[in-house]
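Good day; I would like, with your permission, to put a structural problem before you. What I wish to show you is a protein chain and, alongside it, a tokenised description of its three-dimensional fold. Please examine both parts with care and let me know of anything in them that strikes you as inconsistent. Thank you for your consideration; the sequence and its tokens are set out here:

***
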Amino acid sequence: MLVQHLPQLLTQRIVLASASPRRHDLLRLLGLKFEVIPSTFAEDLPQGQHTPGSYVVETAREKGREVATRLATGSVPAGAPPALIISADTVVEIDGEILEKPADAADAIRMLTKLSGRTQLVHTGVVLFTQLAGADAGATDSAMKETSFCETTRVHFDDLTAADIQAYVATGECFGKAGAYGIQGPAMQFVKGVEGCYQNVVGFPINSFARRLGQLIDEGHLQL
């Protein structure tokens, strides 16, 4: 785990390649200090060529690589090369369909109607980029070790009426969230139960992240 390494991690440059406020909040609650450099990757991988799990991992990988390249080429604020870049992507799966962020209110209503009264899978892909031993400060993202994993959580929704869905969508809280809902907000009332990591549904699997990063430290892939 990370708790014994936090004092040393606070001295390292850590970059989060995500604009998600939920991920920011979870990582800060963990005790990490980091800077946010959102990725500009278009997130347009062909879904038909991936399982939902591989889709989120590869999207996270491309997001992290894009930020790593900008850091290496100096197109973002200069500084010491980051010891760690964290990237992630989250989707909801139902009937084999990947639900990302809704395009508009009609799309949000479609997603929530499909989720009503059913069990969905929430997948988060995470990729951790660490400097390879001996890599110089001017190296590109190809000189970084990539460690990836996917966390999956089962979420059981209660039956929702059309009025429930329309009222929730009208709040605007559904936008910018995979599957058109945020479990940490008013939509928590829709959830009958969760099997697996709750934080994963919020947007970042803290327990798996802490274990994987702790392993990288213990194995010498992230030197503090």
Notes: The helical segments are 6-9, 21-30, 52-73, 105-115, 162-170, 198-202, 206-218. Confidence is low (pLDDT under 50) at residues 135-141.
